[in-house]
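Feature request, filed as a ticket because there's no other form

It would be nice if the structure record came with a short human-readable summary line next to the tokens. Right now we just get the raw output. Example of a typical job, pasted below so the devs can see what we mean:
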Amino acid sequence: MNGKVIVLRTNYKLISAIALTLLLVSLCACADGNGQSKTPTPSTQNETPSASPSPTEQTDDGGGSSAPSTPSGEVVVTFDYEKQSGSASNQYAVWVEDMDGNYINTLYATQWTAAGGFKSRPDSIALWVEKSNIASMPDYYVDAISGATPKSSGSQSYAWNLKDINGDTVSPGEYKIFVEGTLRWKNYVLYSGVITIGDAPITVEADAEYVYEASDRYDALTSESPENAMIGAVTAVWEP
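Raw output as currently delivered:
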């Protein structure tokens, strides 16, 4: 009698355990509402969200530009010079301005005028004297940009190393090149041209403007006067 009771109790416990196991399995299978596990598959776990292009992948929309590079090279101004006889002639200067007319630097000026001759002869390369403000410049600057008047006729060349009056290198862009020559007293010639400082070499032929004016003792020159040959064929060459 006691053995049968024990067998019945043991079977009851086994049945109860099986039923509980089946219930738990059923509950897990239905946990996501679709009978599928919520655990991500390996392919889902390895996916990465799409990202914005890196700075190297982004394209320039025109909203900005890179800083201009510092130019390297020189501008060489060349012209024919014919020495004149007599006084109040043979003075000239070569200088650079920006496109707004601001003085940049002088490549060369005849020493007599630069060292103070403009005080006794105000007509001597008067435009350059005003633009350069040479009267206020220190002696070391005057010495650096001036030289003796050529003793004979021939081709003259003067180089600009792209430095301004403060010794700083200018930015790329357009600049005006000037050559002024005092032909005789108040009569002068002014050559001018625009040179572009960029990646490509360029040669520019300057245009001449002659001004003829009489003074107290001398008549004005004319287009036939031999003094017109003092300076001619002015060119500026940019070589990066």
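Something like this underneath would help us a lot:
The two ends are 118 Å apart (CA to CA).
The chain has two domains: 1-33, 74-239.
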